[in-house]
Amino acid sequence: MTALSRILIVALAVAAPALAAQTASTAAPAPAPACPPTATLDQLITAIDAAVSGPADKDRTCLRDVLLPEARLIPVGKRPDGTIAPRILSVDGWIDAVRKRGSGVFYERQIKVKTEVYGPVAHLWSTYEVRPTPDGKAEVRGINSIQAVYDGARWRVIEITWHAEEVGWRRGGNPQTEEIRFIYSLPIRLPGAVFSKNPRCRALPNSALRALRYPLPVEPMPWHAFIP
Fold this sequence. Notes:
Blueprint: H1 3-27, H2 41-52, E1 54-55, H3 61-66, E2 67-78, E3 84-86, E4 89-90, H4 91-99, E5 105-118, E6 121-131, E7 140-150, E8 155-164, H5 178-184, E9 189-190, E10 193-194, H6 206-211
Parallel strand pairs: 2-8
Antiparallel strand pairs: 1-5, 2-3, 2-4, 5-6, 6-7, 7-8, 9-10
């Protein structure tokens, strides 16, 4: 055996373990994260909150799992000219927009949900809150309108339209929003109606609600964290 042959044999023996480790790491990619089940609508709400919450640049495998590929995510907000308009985003569009926020963390929790179901179609009208930590104080509140479909095994989302509360917003008079609950909690007496913290005294004519459209102060709230 020549000296060159011996050198080649030694070199192969040294390099073999490294080559084997590289081949193994290439052949065995990291397992995908386990995503929450969505066999029921309650589970779907939990899965949406978990998929959305956390670092803005986190892995979105579970978000893609809970949404249909064709799903649309639609924040409704105010334009610079003062008009209200939706911004229609694809799943990738929403992920890209939120990722620009870097490692910033937020947590969404849907605190009240009204559900309507007809066969494999469901609509969930939910009040949500956004916090900087899981147990922190809510910094943003608003309404989600969620459309979901059942494929025979689980529920998946086809569309979410949402609007965050803002200063002075009164249209619709929906008592499910935090802003209207704020008004209901004030001890104000008006002709034909009484405001108080007693649930039995929360009825108020529309005319009286319109009269309160501007005079009452409302705690300023920042825009929904999900609007790019």
